[in-house]
Structures are given as structure tokens and as C-alpha cells.
Amino acid sequence: MFVSTSLVFGLMRSLGVFFVEFVQYFEESAQAISWISSIGLAAQQFFSPLGAALCNAYNTRPVVMTGGFLSGLGLILASQATCLVHLYLTMGVISGLGWGLVFTPMVATVMAKFTHRRALALGLGFSSIGLSSFAFNPLFQLLVETYAWRGALLILGGLSLNIMACGALIRPECRSKGPAKLDSQSRLPCSDMLQRVSSYLEVSLLCERPYLTYTLGVTLFNFGYFVPYFHLVAHSRHVGFSEYGAAFIMSAAGVTDIFGRIVSGWFSDLGHFRVIHLLILWTVLAGVFIMLLPVSSLMGSYSALMVISLLYGFCSGALTSMVFAVVPMIMGVERMMGGLGLLQLIESCGGLLGTPLSGWLRDNTGNYVASFMVAGSFVLLGSLTMTTLPHFFSCTDPPPPKRPVLIDNSDALRLELAQKNCCSSEMNHQAVEQTKR
């Protein structure tokens, strides 16, 4: 998980280095270029239920290995792009599909394996995102200057293929119990097949208020959370800082991101506060620091922008571990694989629209001040939504919900026939007894 997440979100968060290069090469608006990263992020979240369903039906290992191949293939094909549509399809759809098949299965596998120190385990696994952000931003800038953006994307494609090796190390049965796996030789009626697919995706969660409330809050987070990672480098260059100076700001934020993930996971496992309360704390602070990012650079102070970026990096890293640590408390461990995929599907609309909205505000205002203000407002609004969760103001966590017991139509039919046979045999036995008498 440590390596694979660095090659998914660590790489995704460092693509801001390519933003300025694409604007200059294709001579397009900031909004049009922003769709590249937004489509990739949205595709990763949109296809997460597919990855979860395939893992429930078959095994995690081949799913993650396939995702690693697709993520590398998309970046390799993007290096040959001649227009923005090519980048939308390659970096956006193909790589996004690969990321979706990697991220959710990896996270769900680790969450199912750890019970007592789950938040710390997630924090350690996610810390690679901050570490890779620190290393990738100056590395990508060097690759762009040395090989141009085409050569840099080709190298990143080869680097992403290492996810296949991570997938090969997953034990096939290292997951929580779910529905029975599909048998390729069996033939099921259409209704039974739909019911089985629904159970793989955990669609029943959409009827539960806590899950819907939590999903809405996370979706609002997504509208603003990723904006700094895609536009902070461009904003820094816009206010007059050098290319490497702008890239180093994101690298520095990546360092504090590492500590934020580990510290928040460790502190959460101490049990002094509920995880949902810690999530709200880190989310509110992250939203405030997002809104302060453009304000700190209005006077051209590089040190002020650096300090706010460091604080934002710590809080954004801290809240990520908490977002996933709360998931088992909302839906239970048994439904975690499908529920996590469904959550990623719904929140994909926030990832899809957040960055283009930020680019549109930049095109219409001439700077990124309004972009970061609106992004921070969405994060704060998501925090406010979380406070409506049931038992939010309680000092103890409620018991996690259990998976509802469902019986397939075929199973019900077999049960009914067995009952009828039992009844008929009893009647025959009684008739024989009466005849003897």
C-alpha cells in the first residue's frame, strides 16, 4: 500500500508541474487544462466500485495488477498526445481506470487486516503520498526541463508499472468475508445475477442515513481538497516566484503531509477522542489554511506562503487518515470493500468539478484568490455536514452496523421445496400410522 499509493495519489498530486507546460504548449485556458487532472481523479473514484466488485467476485491480486498496467499505459500513451482530447482519454480515463482498480482494493485490504491500530496503519500507508509529493515535484520539474513534457510522461508511465509488482505481493484471500465468489461455469437467472452484483457493490448502503450523510460530507471535501495540489504551483509562479521555488512549496507541504498522516493516526489510536471529532478538527483547519494560501502571497512574501503551505500540508494529511478510519464505523467491516468503492463513486463528482471550477474562476478573475477561497469554503461546508451524523455529539462510538442477511431467490426456492418435501413426508408417515391402527 505504501508504494502503490505513492504511485497513485503521490503522482496525481504532483501533476501540477505539467499544468503550466500544457497551457503553454496547447495554448488553452486554465479551465480546459484543469479537466485533465479532474477527469483522472474522477475516473479513479468513479471506477472504484468496479474494482471493489471485482475483488469481491474474484481476488484482489489480479485486479490490482491490471490496474497497475492500465495506469502506466495511460501515461505512456499520453506522451504521444497531439491535442487535449488525447490527454483527457489517456491521462484521464485510462490512467484513472487503473488508479481506481488499485487504490480502493489496497486500502480495503489493509483496513480489513488491522483492527486495533487501524488509524496508525492507514497513516503509515498513506504517508507515502506526502513523501512522494516531496520527491516528485522537483523530480518532475527536472524531467520536464531535461526531456520535455513528452519524455517526462513516458518515464512516469514506466514508473507506474511498478504497481503491478505491488499487486503481485497481495495474498489472494487477504480480505474480509463477503458474498460467495462467482463460478464461471454456473448460470444464474437475471434477477439472481442483479441481486448478486448489488451485494458486491453494497447498494443497500444507499438506504442508510449515516452512510448518505457521510458520503455527502466527503463529496463536499473533494470539491476543494485537491485544488491546491493542481493550482498552487501555477499560483506561485503567477505571483512571481521561480519554477523551482514554486515546485519546492508543494514539496515542503508534502513533508508536513507525511507527519500529519502518522501523527493523526497515532493520536487517534490513543482513544482520547472519537475519530469523527478528530476528522472535523483537521478538516476545519485544512479549509481555513486553503483560504489563507492566496492571502499569504498577496504581498509577494515567499516565507508567508511557505508557512501556510506547511500548515495546510499537515492538516490535509491528518484528515486523510481519519476519513478512511471512520468508514468501518459507518458501514461495518464486512461491507467495507463494496462500501468504500461506492463512496469513491459518489464523491467522484466533487473531484471532477472542483478543479475546473477553480480554473474557471482563475480565467474570469485573472488570479487564483477566488479559486482558493471557494475551495476552502467547500471543505468547511463538508465539515458542517458531518455534524448532522447520528450520535455525532456523543462521547462514545455507536456499535457498527451489521450486514443485512439476504437470501438469493434460488436459495429461497430450494428452502421452500425442502419444507414442502418435509411436510409431505410427515403427512405420509401419519397416513401409514393411521392405516396400521
From TrEMBL:
SUPFAM superfamilies: MFS general substrate transporter. It is a multi-pass membrane protein. The chain crosses the membrane at residues 32-55, 62-81, 87-107, 119-136, 148-170, 211-232, 244-263, 275-296, 302-327, 339-357, 369-393. Residues 1-16 form the signal peptide. It is found in: Membrane. Residues 1-394 form the Major facilitator superfamily (MFS) profile domain. Pfam families: MFS_1. This is Major facilitator superfamily (MFS) profile domain-containing protein. It comes from Ameca splendens.
